[in-house]
Structures are given as structure tokens and as C-alpha cells.
Here is the input.
Amino acid sequence: MSDLILTTYDWVPEIPRGFVRDIRVRWALEEAGLPYRVESAPFKDRGPEHFSHQPFGQVPWLTDDGISIFESGAILLHLAERSDKLMPSDPRGRAQVLEWLFAALNSVEMASLPWSLLKFMGHTSDTPGWTFLDDFLHKHRLTHMETVLTDREWLAGSFSVADILMADVLRLIDRFDGLAAYPACRRYVTNATARPAFTKAHADQMAHFAAADRERPI
Here is the structure.
């Protein structure tokens, strides 16, 4: 039995399927070829056991030989320390991966997540809040990412855990057609999500929630 246990929700509504953040961890585990198993926590009625692993009641968390780790970025960094397929061991390469890993979370997702939530809720009228978020994401994040990605395949040389995070952040923007004016960003997401490890991770997540549908009472 594997010591790596990925815990995600037992069920979610259809709209977020394919984007629940356990997909980042599944993707990394598949890229690294690390054996793991998946366990479930209730989407509803989240109890003390859930909050003991994830203090905000979210998913995923990873258990590694009795160590419980929450937050997808922290989990991916933990896995990257275990596999040179996710992060090189030389100091320069490692530093490049780390800076882009944190850029994905702290610079790009910080701007893209509120933008995506407003898009999802349809709150995109010409208000000061929406105008600010839309301008900030496009002018101060996507424009710069387009410049970075125009002349490179991956962020830090070879494919790494930083690309898992950045591609996952950008593909949520693309779900709302936010990358239409950024061909290099869109090419990057397309290439990343064409990787067999992502294809399997996505299929496994969708199958996990589909199985839960069959078990739910009508």
C-alpha cells in the first residue's frame, strides 16, 4: 500500500469538475510516477477531522508517511523535493522553479481568481471593481506572461512543478476565454494539458466525481 494518500472531496457539482485543485496534485504525482491512492472527505457536513487536515475546510491535502500537508502549492513543493522530474537538483535550476512556482500563486492567481469568480457569477458590468480587476489582470499579469512565454516552451527550462501550477492557473482564465488575446499563453496551456500526465489526472478526477453521482440517492 502506498504511503502517499491524496484526499479530495467525495463529490462536487458539475461546474467545478476538472478544476478542483486536487488535479494539480494528481498531475504532479503522475508526472513523477509516484504511487498513490485517493481518499474522500465529505463535500457537505465537513467535520473536525476535515478541519484538522485543512483548516479552511477545502481540498486537497496529502498524507505522506503520516505527515499531512495542505495547500496545493505546498503539496507540489513537497513532491518536487522527492522527484527530479518535477524540479532539478542543481541550485540555479531549483531557484528558477521556485520563483515561478511562487509567481503562479502570488502574482498570477492572486489576480486571476477574483476575476474568474466574477466571470462565473456574471458580475462583469462596468463597475469600478470589475474594471480594476480586469485591467490589472490583463495589463499587469497576462501581458507580462505573454512576453515571458513568447520565446520559451516551459518556464524554467525543462517541464517542472512550476509549469503545473502556472498552466493550471492560466487554464481557468482560458475557460472564460481570457487568453484570446494572448497566443503564447494559450499555446503554453495547450501544450501543458496535452501531456499524458495531465490527461490521466483530469480523467481520474472526472471519473471520481462521476462515480459519486452514481452512489448518490436520486
Residues 40 and 123 are 33 Å apart (CA to CA). DSSP finds eight helices and four strands in the chain.
